[in-house]
Specification:
alpha+beta, disordered N terminus, Immunoglobulin-like, TIM Barrel, globular, 4 domains, 8-stranded parallel β-sheet
C-alpha cells in the first residue's frame, strides 16, 4: 500500500506543476463564461468545535479547563415511558444513574398537557421494580396528565467531585469559600494528612505518540492563582512542564492566613522531546485553599482564544461560525457565565463525560472580530424562561455588533441515538418543545433582531421533514448534514475510491429541497465533510483519499458548491480542529478526521480540506455576487465552476475538476490573471503562477481531481 501511495504522489506532483508550457498549444476542452446568478451568497461557514486538553482542539489561551474550580453541572432529558401518581419512568434503560443521584435536582415539563410544571426531584431509583433498569423518579409536585413521550428536563449540581476535569491526589474537597471578588461559588481545600500529600494536577497535550506536540509552549507564559492557609501558614509546590524535560516553572510559595493573589511569569522554549504537559499544585503539610487558576501565554487573542486560533480563522474568512461543543445539558446561565464562574457540564451518565466549554460571550466576540454570523446551538434542556433570557441577551449583543443574522438551532441531532440523553427523536414532540423555546427566544429578542431559528434533521431521512414542518410554527429552517464518502473497503484501490467519491450524487439533498419547496422554510447545512469511518479499509488506505493533496479539498469544495446551487445559503463545514477519530468496527483504529487543520500549534496548519475552503472563501468579493459558469466543450461534465464579482470589477473564478485527467480550459480576461493550485503534497502551500491574457482569453491546464482559483487582482 505504501509503494502504491508513493506512486500516486509522484504522478500527482508532476500533474500539479502550475506552469505547463504545453497548455498554450493543447486544444481547449472547456470554455467557461459567467452564467446565471446565484445572487449574493455568504461565505461558507465552519463548526468552531469544542475544546479539549488532550487533542488538537486547543482553542483557549487559558489552557486549563474549569479554572474556577467550580462544581459540575448535570442536565438531561427524561422521555416519559410511563407515569402514575407516584413516579415517572424514563423510556431508556441505559440512562439510569445511581440511586439518589437526581435527588434535589430541578425539573420542568417541556411538552404535553403538563408543560410548564416545575419542581424538584425527590429521589430516583432504577432498581425499584425488579428486572426493570429504567430510571424511575419521584417528583414534587407530581405533574398531572403526563403521557408516554412527554419530555421533562432535569438539571442540578449532582456530582460530588471537588473539581471536575482536574486530577486530585489525597484529600481534596470543594468548599463554599471563594476568594474575594471571585465570580464563582466555590474554592477547593487541600489537606495534607501525615505523610500523604494533597494535590491538584492538570494534564494537557497527550497525543504526542502519534501526533507530536499539539500545544507547544513557547515564549512568555503566566500562571496565576489565589491561595490561603486557614491555619496561618502552608507551603505550596508549583510545577509546570513537559514530561521528559526539566519543568519551565518549579518553585515553592508560602501562603498566609488571608487570601492572596499569586502571579508568576516564565519563559518557555519547547524544544525537548514530545510528551504530555502537566501542571501540579501540591501541598506536603497543613491545609490550603485554592481558587481561580489561570495558565497560558501572556498574549491572548480576541475573546480569550489562542492567537493561533484567531489567525487561522482570519485566513479562513468563515461566513458562519457554529458553536457546537456538546452543551446539550447546559444551562443558559452557565453559557453566559465568565470563565472563572463557569461550570463543567455533562448530559450523559459516566465519570468521563464532563466537558468544559467556552461561553457565548467569548464566542460572540470572536464572531464579531471575524465578521462571521453566529450559529448558536441551544441546550436541549432549555426551558422557555431560559430561552427568553437568552433572547434578551442576544438583543443586547446585536445592538452592539449588528450581525446580519444570528442562527439559533435547537439541540444537535435529536434523531441520533448517541445524543439520546438530551435528544427528542419524535418529530411531533421535538416540534412542540422547540416551538415553545423558539417563541420565548423571539419574545426576549424582540422583532428587530434577525433571528434564523432551525431544527436539525437526519440527512437521509427526508420523510421527517413534513412531520417537523407540521409540528413547528416558529422555525425558519431545517438543517441537515450531507457528509460524503462514508465507506471505504480494503479491496478498493485508492483511484477507485476517489472516483467513487466524486461520483456521489445529492439525491437526498434534492429530496429535502422538494420537501421544503413552497413551505417558507430554508434548507441549511449544519455540518459537512468526509465521514469515512465505515468499511474495512485500513487507516492508510483512507488517508490516501481523505488527505489526497488536491482531491480531498476538491471534493469538499464541490459538495459546498453543489449544495449552494440547490438553494442552500447557510453551510458550516465540520470542523476547525480534531486530529483523528475511531473507525467503525472492532479494535481502535483511527482515521484523521474531522479537523480541516492538522492542529492549532501554529496558524493555518491546513489539511487539504481546509486549504480548499480558505481559497474558496477568498474568492468571494465584497458584494457576494456569485454566478455559475456557462460551459462548452467535452470536459464540461467533469467541471464545477463559479465566477465571483461583477463584470469589469476584477472577476474571480473557482473551479473543481472531478476528472482524473488534466483538462485545458479557457476563461475570459481583461488582463493577466493569477492561478492558484494546491501543492503536490499534503504539507505544501498553495502554488501560484501568472496566466497571460491574449485577445480577451486565457488558458490554463486544470489538473485532474483538483481545484483551481483564478484571480485578476
Amino acid at each position: 500500500m505504501k509503494q502504491h501511495a508513493a506512486g500516486i504522489a509522484i504522478a500527482l506532483a508532476a500533474a500539479l506543476l502550475p506552469a505547463l508550457p504545453a497548455a498554450a498549444q493543447a486544444p481547449v476542452q472547456a470554455q467557461l463564461q459567467a452564467g446565471a446568478t446565484l445572487g449574493s451568497l455568504p461565505r461558507f461557514g465552519l463548526n468552531l468545535g469544542g475544546r479539549t486538553v488532550w487533542g488538537a482542539d486547543q482553542l483557549m489561551a487559558n489552557v486549563l479547563q474549569n479554572p474556577g474550580l467550580e462544581p459540575g453541572l448535570d442536565g438531561t432529558l427524561i422521555i416519559v415511558g410511563g407515569a402514575d401518581a407516584r413516579q415517572v419512568d424514563d423510556d431508556s434503560p441505559w440512562l439510569a444513574r445511581a440511586a439518589g443521584f437526581w435527588a434535589g435536582a430541578r425539573y420542568e415539563v417541556l411538552s404535553g398537557a403538563a408543560a410548564g410544571t416545575q419542581g424538584r426531584v425527590l429521589d430516583n431509583n432504577h432498581a425499584a421494580r425488579p428486572g426493570d433498569g429504567h430510571e424511575q423518579l419521584r417528583l414534587s409536585p407530581m405533574p398531572g396528565g403526563l403521557q408516554r413521550g412527554d419530555v421533562l428536563a432535569l438539571q442540578g449540581q449532582q456530582d460530588v467531585l471537588p473539581a471536575p476535569l482536574w486530577w486530585t491526589q489525597g484529600r481534596v474537597v470543594s468548599v463554599a469559600e471563594p476568594r474575594p471578588g471571585s465570580p464563582g461559588q466555590r474554592a477547593v481545600k487541600l489537606s495534607a494528612l501525615g505523610a500523604e500529600a494533597a494535590a491538584l494536577h492538570h494534564h494537557l497535550d497527550a497525543l504526542g505518540a502519534r501526533a507530536g506536540k499539539l500545544l507547544p509552549v513557547q515564549g512568555r507564559w503566566r500562571l496565576s492563582l489565589w491561595l490561603r492557609a486557614p491555619q496561618g501558614k502552608a507551603q505550596l509546590r508549583l510545577s509546570f512542564g513537559r514530561q521528559g524535560r526539566p519543568a519551565w516553572l518549579s518553585r515553592s510559595v508560602e501562603a498566609g492566613a488571608s487570601w492572596q493573589a499569586l502571579t508568576l511569569e516564565f519563559d518557555a522554549q519547547d524544544d525537548g522531546p514530545t510528551g504530555p504537559l502537566q501542571l501540579s499544585l501540591s501541598l506536603a503539610q497543613g491545609e490550603l485553599l485554592l481558587d481561580d487558576v489561570e495558565l497560558g501565554p501572556i498574549a491572548a487573542g480576541v475573546g480569550g482564544f489562542r492567537q493561533e486560533v484567531v489567525d487561522t480563522l482570519r485566513q479562513l474568512r468563515p461566513g458562519y461560525l457554529r458553536d457546537w461543543q456538546g452543551q446539550l445539558g447546559d444551562s443558559v446561565a452557565n453559557r453566559l457565565a465568565v470563565p472563572l464562574a463557569r461550570q463543567a457540564m455533562r448530559y450523559r451518565p459516566g465519570p468521563n463525560e464532563q466537558m468544559f466549554a467556552y461561553g457565548l460571550p467569548e464566542f460572540i466576540e470572536l464572531c464579531a472580530a471575524l465578521g462571521a454570523r453566529p450559529w448558536l446551538v441551544l441546550p436541549a434542556t432549555i426551558t422557555p424562561a431560559e430561552a427568553q433570557r437568552l433572547g434578551a441577551w442576544l438583543r443586547e449583543v446585536w445592538q452592539r455588533h449588528r450581525f446580519e443574522e444570528i442562527v439559533v438551532e435547537h439541540g444537535n441531532e435529536h434523531w441520533n441515538a448517541i445524543f439520546r440523553p438530551a435528544g427528542i427523536a419524535q418529530p411531533r414532540v421535538l416540534g412542540e418543545v422547540a416551538d415553545r423555546a423558539f417563541a420565548a427566544l423571539r419574545a426576549g429578542a424582540g422583532p428587530a433582531l434577525p433571528l434564523h431559528r432551525v431544527l436539525g434533521a437526519q440527512y437521509v431521512n427526508t420523510h421527517t421533514g413534513a412531520q417537523l414542518l407540521s409540528a413547528s410554527r416558529h422555525s425558519e429552517g431545517i438543517a441537515v448534514a450531507p457528509y460524503f464518502h462514508y465507506r471505504q473497503d480494503r479491496a478498493e484501490s485508492s483511484e477507485r475510491a476517489l472516483q467513487r467519491a466524486f461520483d456521489e450524487d445529492l439525491q437526498a439533498l434534492q429530496r429535502w429541497r422538494e420537501a421544503l419547496q413552497g413551505k417558507g422554510r430554508s434548507l441549511d447545512v449544519y455540518e459537512v465533510n468526509f465521514h469515512t469511518t465505515a468499511g474495512d479499509a485500513s487507516p492508510e488506505q483512507r488517508h490516501a483519499v481523505i488527505e489526497h493533496p488536491s482531491a480531498a479539498g476538491a471534493l469538499l469544495a464541490r459538495r459546498l458548491m453543489q449544495s449552494a446551487q440547490l438553494g442552500v445559503r447557510r453551510q458550516a463545514v465540520y470542523s476547525l480542529a480534531g486530529y483523528d477519530t475511531p473507525i467503525d468496527g472492532p479494535g481502535r483504529q483511527l482515521v484523521r478526521l474531522f479537523g480541516i487543520t492538522r492542529d492549532l500549534a501554529s496558524a493555518a496548519n491546513w489539511r487539504p480540506t481546509g486549504q480548499a475552503l480558505a481559497e474558496l472563501n477568498a474568492a468571494f468579493t465584497a458584494d457576494g455576487e456569485v454566478r455559475t459558469a456557462q460551459c462548452s466543450g467535452p470536459a464540461c461534465a467533469s467541471l464545477s465552476a463559479w465566477a465571483f464579482g461583477r463584470e469589469g470589477q476584477g472577476r474571480r473564478w473557482f473551479i473543481v475538476s472531478s476528472a482524473r485527467e488534466a483538462q485545458t480550459l479557457s476563461l475570459p480576461c481583461t488582463s493577466a490573471l493569477t492561478l492558484r493550485l494546491p501543492g503536490p503534497s499534503i504539507n505544501n502551500a498553495v502554488q501560484s503562477s501568472v496566466l497571460a491574457c491574449e485577445k480577451g482569453q486565457t488558458r490554463l491546464q486544470m489538473p485532474g481531481w483538483s481545484w483551481a482559483s483564478v484571480r485578476s487582482d
